[in-house]
Specification:
NADH Oxidase, 4-stranded antiparallel β-sheet, two-stranded antiparallel sheet, 7 helices
Amino acid sequence: MNVDEAIDKRRALRAFDTRPVPDGVITELIEAMRLSPSCNNNQPWRVIVARDQGSLGAVRASLPRGNGWATRAPLILVVCSRLEDDCKLSDRRDYFLFSTGLAVGEMLLRATEMGLTAHPIAGYDALAIKEGLGIPADHVLITLVICGYPGTDVSMLSDKQLMAEVERPARLPVGDNFFDGRWGRPWS
């Protein structure tokens, strides 16, 4: 699969098969993140691979009802970082979030290439996960990436979530957030 195909095919689906993701596949996901660019090659991301019942249980217990669909996934990547681990530049350009986001983005494409769904979410009780998994207080739990093979059981999905399984959610028109040479001059 070419990169453009992976970009086009990547979706944040919510229906997961419960079969485990093999260690070799997880290693490929880790390698995609490990090789990602970061400011001064600082590699500020820290990732807990939750796949055993103890770590998965701690993460699943932190999910609100709207993200209950994620409890079917056999693998959840708990992605953390902290300000001190990456570049701090003028004008509040603290790169730890950006660098970590790049690593997650590259991993999402690799997961897509390997036939997995990798769905980052922001809805969870971060403090409960940090306590349950022993994440230091000075680290920011940036995202959970819900991973697994696509499934067919959609019984846990709301009507809105079900629609997103069928059709890619709409994107903004290019001119709304891409500008030609100057802010507010839409790219056409």
